[in-house]
Amino acid sequence: MQQVSGRERAYRHLRETVLVDPAVQGTFLNEVDLAQDIGVSRTPVREALLLLVAEGLVEMVPKRGAYVPPLSGRQIRELMELRTLLEQHAASVTLAQRSVPLEAMRAALAEQEHLLAAEPCDPHVFIEWDRKFHQSLVDAAGNELIARTYAGLRTRQVRVGVAALFRTTDRQRAVCVEHGRIVDALQSGDEAAAHAAISDHLRITQRLFLEA
Fold this sequence. Notes:
This protein has helices at 6-18, 31-38, 42-54, 73-97, 102-117, 123-140, 144-151, 154-165, 171-188, 191-211, and strands at residues 27-29, 59-61, 65-68.
């Protein structure tokens, strides 16, 4: 088994654990604390931060360190526009190829409903299943480049999704209903209905985030 480098460990921790937390937006990251949490020296942490700078997720401020800029309204709109295009394309392709991943999507939805029933619902776990629900559809289209592009949106997706859950009461339940509509449309083979369900779901998330 190939050993994971310190830089890769730091990168994964930052991308998958730290930056997905809406609370870190608008704050500076402490490299010493991060190094201790990850179990590496400061050098791989700094290298990982530079990778995240290149991805536009972190900014390096002279004499201050690594800053996590809040997502702007424009970035949110662009994210949701890209997600809508990719997911609607995946819906069309999988319907045409009869490869809609209904089992995987239903399983993800069932996990969300289970979390909802077992209050309190952990928003990060809920949104991780949300991400798997959507990613399974994109993956099933069979285009590796599109799938990797979509997967690369994970940090922004989770940050927006978790934040949106706190924008209104009972958002988790509404998400499950919206996911159910997407699954129903795909199961029926109705491409137009699937496109509409995907668009409506993402538009609501965008609106909730921007109206806060």
